[in-house]
Specification:
Elements (H helix, E strand, L loop, with lengths): L1 H33 L4 H13 L7 H16 L3 E9 L2 E13 L3 E3 L1 E3 L11 E8 L2 H6 L9 E4 L10 H6 L1 H4 L1 H7 L4 E5 L25 E4 L1 H13 L2 E12 L3 E9 L4 E11 L9 H19 L7 E8 L7 H8 L7 E6 L7 E5 L8 H10 L5 E3 L11 H5 L6 E4 L4 H4 L12 H19 L5 H7 L7
Helix pairs in contact: 1-11, 1-14, 2-9, 9-14, 11-14
Bound molecules: zinc ion.
Amino acid sequence: MIRSLLTATVACALLATAAHAQDVATAAALRDKALLDRTAWDITEDLTTTIGPRLVGSPAMTRAKDWGVAKLKALGFTNVKVEEFAKPSWTRGAESAELVAPYPLKLAIVGLGRTPPTPAGGIEAEAVVFRTYAELIAASEGSLKGKIAVITQPMVRAQDGAGYGVAGISRRTGPVEAAKRGAVALLIRSISTSDSTVPHTGVTAFGPDVLTIPSAAMGVPEAEQLERLAAKGPLRIKLNLASTVDAGDVAWNISGEIKGSTKPDEVIIAGGHLDSWDVGTGALDDATGVAITAAAAKLIGDLPKHPKRTIRVVMWGSEESGGSSEAYLAAHKDELAKIVLAGESDTGADRIYSLQLPKGAATHPTMQAAARVLTPLKIYLDQAPAAHAGSDVEGLEGAGVPVINLNQDASRYFDYHHTADDTLNKVDPSQLAQNVAAWASFLYLTADSDIDFRTLGATAPAPHAN
Ligand SMILES: [Zn+2]
């Protein structure tokens, strides 16, 4: 009796080990196939060329929605869905800026996303330069009355993009803080790691209850020029921004599935965002994120047998000025417990260098196997748990859905981010393929497992470092 029980236990363990070994072999084969696969490149090329810039509410975004549906179907995804939500749109108009005194100089600028327009004819005023955001905050209320505030705080280049959050505050809340101090407009140094005159846009604080002012970003050399000039004497600047808002507009989250073979109700979500700013073709932000995750899932869909769980690719419809995350959470609140894991690719297309898992998962045998499959791609398993997995999945994350980060090298990303230079020629095909290889092998192993990340997180000891 005991012997037969033992034999059965050993047989089960052997079967499990054999299944595990088969999964690891399949994941490794997917990885190697992805490195030679052109699908992600073709998707990126098609989206950026056929559709072009994809500002929410623009006619191009409607074309992008139809493109997304057709692309998912053509790639073999099933259960393709379009989920509409309300999203007021904003459309850029004519924009210009110039230094008026001490001498005339045209400034290459771009209005911040969602900025209000200047009055017709523009605003001309004395400019006050702050070399950091903190200096602006230190200025007293009323001290900028009638003036144009200028913030020239630089952004630090870092592999993990950490400089963005720090410098980005000038753009996100600078206009509101400058308005509080009486300023009539704000000009910022682009949130950029480049030395180019090409300015970077990006969303600023907006909404019916937000007291803000017309705001724009200039290129790095102009910002440095204004800093030097301000040290020598007074400056006058003229700024002209036109834009319009349509409160009645809509946007869409689009999704398609590689249906699970034995547990199709359990879902793993991966995706990138379909919308972009209007100034470039949004190649790095975020056509490649859409392409990487769709190409990875397609490779899995092409396998003779699908993994146990469903992989759902979401093309998020309004990341840049927000909306997709909340809309998705609201539409899927009854399904949350069945969403096993979520992740987003939204830092361009340079190589992935690390994997971060939900709390407690790093020691799980399947995740250890995943780490081994990723090692030849020069990706390490970071012991720190994943957090802030992307703005489109933050609603899910906040509602308790476990998330991952496949962290991309952001060293180069913020040279082009939100500019007219975010174009296809910045995408390196071999690094793009490395991304697909990582997502394909990781998604496969997770989808063909029974891992319950929530349970692992609940019982995990606190992480420690030696
Ligand atoms: Zn993005």
